[in-house]
From TrEMBL:
Co-factor(s): Zn(2+)
InterPro entries per UniProt: Creatininase-like_sf, Creatininase/forma_Hydrolase
Keywords: Hydrolase, Metal-binding, Zinc
The protein's name in its UniProt record: Creatininase
Gene Ontology molecular function, alphabetical: hydrolase activity, acting on carbon-nitrogen (but not peptide) bonds, in linear amides; metal ion binding
Pfam families: Creatininase
One of the protein's GO biological processes: riboflavin biosynthetic process
Species this protein is from: Haloprofundus marisrubri
Length: 259
């Protein structure tokens, strides 16, 4: 996008947006959740991450950045105050309708940048299928953990990073260091053993679908996080963010070139 038109939809007039659509028909939609993230991270982590990553993509690649979605499917985190959650059905309808409205003013490609990865992956996969089948647009579910998984496996030093631990904390140290209080970070180990084909780790042996309830989470952690955030660093976060930004840029550029 040019410097004069910008790329943040919420900051544009409709005339500026109309002009911008002559340059790109790709929309980045950050989708997250407002939920507890332990003692050391703010409630908005799952939105701050995809929005900031989307910002870095849109600043250098032809794409528009939509206002983020702050509320997601988080019933397993309601054991701590500050967590909001909506039903699977409400979430799917809401995201679908937002995307549908964007297609009515010219958007042809939509990337759902999912900061609440793993937990609401199933819902967003269904939304993408509906957008493609019912509206005929190119829609993609972009789960951040999948984009940085290879780098995360290479640089990790903690045994477990499941929620608000090494990966999320490192990314926040890179993107929003003022929101991180490392003095309050606590290492919370999950049970020594998990069921076969499951694992309490974002990069673990999760071969079957499963989910935690709020009661499960309350039994697992008193602080809210699972894993070790004390090993997080800004340097790790920079590599994780760059991996995600680089991959999203590749997809956006390919979509724009195919028009």
């Amino acid at each position: 996008m040019t410097e004069t038109t910008g790329y943040r939809v919420a900051e544009m007039t409709w005339q500026e947006l109309e002009d911008a659509l002559t340059e790109t028909t790709t929309l980045l939609l950050p989708v997250g959740s407002t939920e507890q993230h332990g003692h050391h991270l703010p409630l908005g982590v799952d939105v701050y991450m995809p929005e900031a990553i989307g910002e870095r993509v849109a600043a250098t690649t032809p794409a528009l950045l939509a206002p983020p979605l702050w509320y997601g499917v988080s019933p397993h985190h309601t054991f701590k105050p500050g967590t909001f959650t909506v039903s699977t059905e409400t979430f799917q309808r809401y995201v679908f309708d937002i995307c549908k409205s964007a297609t009515e003013w010219g958007i042809e490609h939509i990337l759902l940048l999912n900061g609440h990865y793993l937990a609401q992956d199933p819902e967003l996969e269904i939304v993408v299928r509906r957008l493609r089948n019912e509206l005929g647009i190119e829609a993609f579910h972009v789960s951040l953990v999948e984009l940085f998984a290879d780098v995360a496996a290479e640089i990790r030093t903690g045994d477990v990073s499941f929620h608000a631990s090494e990966f999320e904390t490192s990314i926040m140290l890179e993107l929003f260091p003022d929101f991180v209080d490392m003095d309050r970070a606590k290492d919370v180990a999950p049970p020594d053993e998990s069921l076969p084909l499951t694992d309490y780790d974002a990069l673990g042996e999760n071969k079957v679908g499963w989910a935690l309830s709020a009661d499960d989470m309350e039994e697992l952690t008193s602080t809210g996080n699972i894993g070790d955030p004390t090993v997080a660093t800004q340097q790790k976060g920079a590599r994780l963010v760059e991996a995600a930004v680089s991959d999203i840029r590749l997809l956006v550029d390919a979509l724009e070139e195919s028009k």
